[in-house]
Amino acid sequence: MLFSLGWVGVLAPLALGAVICLLLQYLTPGTPVRERTVPIPGWAKPFLALLGSSWFGIGAGLLAVPGFWGALLPWRVDRADAQALGVWALALGVGVLGGLVEDDLARLRPALLSLPGVAVVAGVLLGSRAGEVHWASGPGVSLIVMLAGLLASGGIGYRLLAQRTTGPNGQAGVASPSGPVEPAHPDGSVESARPDGPVGAPGGNG
Asked: Among residues 71, 70, 63, which one has the least CA distance to residue 92?
């Protein structure tokens, strides 16, 4: 009972804070939506959809029917633990699926850092209780794969973002609001064209 009250004491302020943040977002004047600069590669989207659906599904099951889904976990839990894990897994699933909808690695930079952190912390915690986890069972193997998916998605996504922002094409030119990227000269000027022909070199006759 005291353990359950402790969960209420911790999660209730967090939930209230989330509601307050949501209200403040609605009261803040909107700004133009930034264009997507680093979209998620097409080959990664099916894997992210599968990963997010897995976490979302097990989380919803643990939260709604803890007696049934809790028995499928690779360690023994009671009703309160099952539902608490369900909330955690449900939040991970919503985060991964929300990132898939966002479809911009530049906007998802915080998530790309937090997902590997969650996987590492969960792995350390499970490792400290290794004797209580049935690793060879189906749920145990599934949990390892799902945690590895969080680690891989965050790590690969951050690497792709770093390549796009610091690679040879990251600073190749200056973006034009009304058209494609225009090549930049070493002195910082940008080559452009007029309707009647190209702009001549500085100091020239044309």
From this structure: 63
pLDDT digits (tens, 9 = 90+) for 156-176: 998 988 888 775 555 433 343
Torsion 140-142-148-154 (CA) sign: negative
- Beta carbons of 128 and 77 less than 8 angstroms apart: no
Q: What is the pLDDT of residues 143-152, one digit of tens each?
A: 999 999 999 9
Enter the pTM of the model: 0.68
Q: How many C-beta atoms surround the C-beta of residue 105 within 10 A?
A: 25
Burial of 121 (0-12, 13-18, 19+ CB in 10 A): exposed
Q: What is the C-alpha to C-alpha distance for residues 151 and 79, in angstroms, rounded to an integer?
A: 28
Q: Which two tokens stand for residue 199?
A: 């702009």
Written in H, E and C, the secondary structure of the chain is CHHHHHHHHHHHHHHHHHHHHHHHHHHCCCCCCCCCCCCCCHHHHHHHHHHHHHHHHHHHHHHHCHHHHHCCCCCCCCHHHHHHHHHHHHHHHHHHHHHHHHCCCCCCHHHHHHHHHHHHHHHHHHHHCHHHCCCCCHHHHHHHHHHHHHHHHHHHHHHHHHHHHHCCCCCCEECCCCCCCEEECCCCCECCEECCEECCCCCCCC
- Tell me the three state secondary structure of residue 173: strand
